[in-house]
Amino acid sequence: MQRKQALIENEIWKSLIGISSRMWKKGWIRGILYIFLVIALWQVAYVSKRFPPILFPSIGEIAHSFLRDLLNGSMLSRIGFSLKLILYGMIISATIAMVLTLLAMASKNFKSLVTSMISIFDPLPGIALLPLAILWIGIGEEAIIFIMIHSIIWPMLLNVIGGFSSVPAIYRDLGYAFGLKRNRFVFGILIPASIPSILTGFKTGWSRAWRALISAEMVFGATGSSWGIGWDIYLKRSYLDMAGMFASLLVIMIIGIVVENLIFKTIERVTVIKWGMAL
What we know:
By secondary structure, this protein is mainly alpha-helical.
């Protein structure tokens, strides 16, 4: 009887370990666990009283601020405004990057020009162009989008051109052998074979877009009657609402985890992994 019970307990432990292992492989679960680990360490720092409360507000205060802004609708409004600008910036940048890449693939001279532009402008922080954006465009959503496009397009171009250039010659030869015209060759050969590099470019562009957005919003402030998370963080810091500021920072982290695991991971699963281009 005891042996049978021990075998049952052993099977239960094996099942739990197996479930835990499968769950740990999911990126969004790991992200949540990391957040909980940071929360626990944060609360330890607060309880220890070694730091002023203004530096480390309690988790309860941060949660209260988060729920307050969420329930009164202000948090969703800020998120919607910021995501709208990022979406515009990503779409415009992706369109320009694809056009420039196709032109670069058609002309070696143009490719040399584009790569030189990447070398010149990619190291230049978007925030450094704020004075030019104000002079050329003014203060508003368009100026923020301009800053984001500068921050997004160069790493995106670098990865897309690199992906197209690294397509194996045998793929190109097969496309020519089947008599594929330019459009079908691009969409049937070049883009699918370059998907890993294109995704890397989009991921880098996404992270660059957030940095440029938050920086620009902190400088430009509200555009009309609306403003995004960046200005919300700046205002809360100005009024010493540190719990509210950290709640807004937490929102950015959560959005990053959601987009990475629901969008980018899904695209990778149905393309790169499905096609055997990655493990």
